[in-house]
Amino acid sequence: MSPHTDRTPTPEADPGRARRRALPGISARARVLAAAGVAGAMLVAGSFALFSDSGTVRSTFSAGTLDLKFDAGQDGAPAPYLVTFDGGDALAPGVSVSQELVVFNSGSVAADLAMAAPTITGTGSGTGADLLQGVLTLTVADVTGTPATLYDGPLATAAFADLDLGADQTQATGRTLELTVTMSATAGVAVAGQTVQVDLPFTATQSS
């Protein structure tokens, strides 16, 4: 029988034991808890969320309108709006007849009003002063506030432009125009009995 041999490892033969001995006062349980704490901190650091908020802005756009009206809401299109002058069916040399016309824009887009030269259809024959339209003049005045003359001259070339109408108007807030037709005091007998139809074209255009 061989003599008993001591197999207890020396510090040099068990480096781990030497390291464990180098940390006196730290138990195995404490080391386990410390390792678990590090792992938990790493897990939290990789999964936390930040507060946040969001919102949406919505807007709607629509095209505006422009709607020219006369007097009590008459359109004048496609058929002309018929205006009757008191005494207009019995003109005589030097005689004038007048009629007020309210013009307004019921649309939402501000507009300027213009009137182009009229379209005239007559029953007479000849030229110049031999035709009724040749001896008629037209005066157009804005009498909404302080009267202002927009046109004064021969009926055949009557026109004006750039009269501010605004927007969202009614008959009560529109422009009141006074139309005055006068037969020349020098009109000859050639025009007696003639009739003319006069179409006055008004246009409302978006203000610039």
Topology:
Layout (H helix, E strand, L loop, with lengths): L14 H7 L6 H18 L22 E3 L25 E10 L5 E5 L3 E4 L13 E7 L5 E7 L5 E7 L8 E9 L12 E4 L2 E5 L2
Antiparallel strand pairs: 1-2, 2-8, 3-7, 3-10, 4-9, 5-6, 5-8
Describe the structure.
The chain has 208 residues and is an alpha+beta fold. The model has no long low-confidence stretch (mean pLDDT 85). The protein has two helices and ten strands; from the N terminus they run H-H-E-E-E-E-E-E-E-E-E-E. Strand 5 and strand 6 form a beta hairpin. Strands 1-2-8-5-6 form a five-stranded antiparallel sheet, with no helix packed on it.
Strand order of the largest sheet: 1-2-8-5-6
Shape verdict: rod-shaped
Low-confidence stretches: none
Count of separate DSSP helical elements: 2
Helix content: 10-25%
Give the N-to-C terminal Cα separation: 125 Å
The succession of helices and strands, N to C, reads HHEEEEEEEEEE
Structural class: alpha+beta
What kind of sheet is the major sheet?
Answer: 5 strands, antiparallel
Number of strands: 10
Mean pLDDT: 85
Taken as a percent bin, the fraction of beta residues is 25-35%
Q: Please tell me how large the radius of gyration is.
A: 49 Å
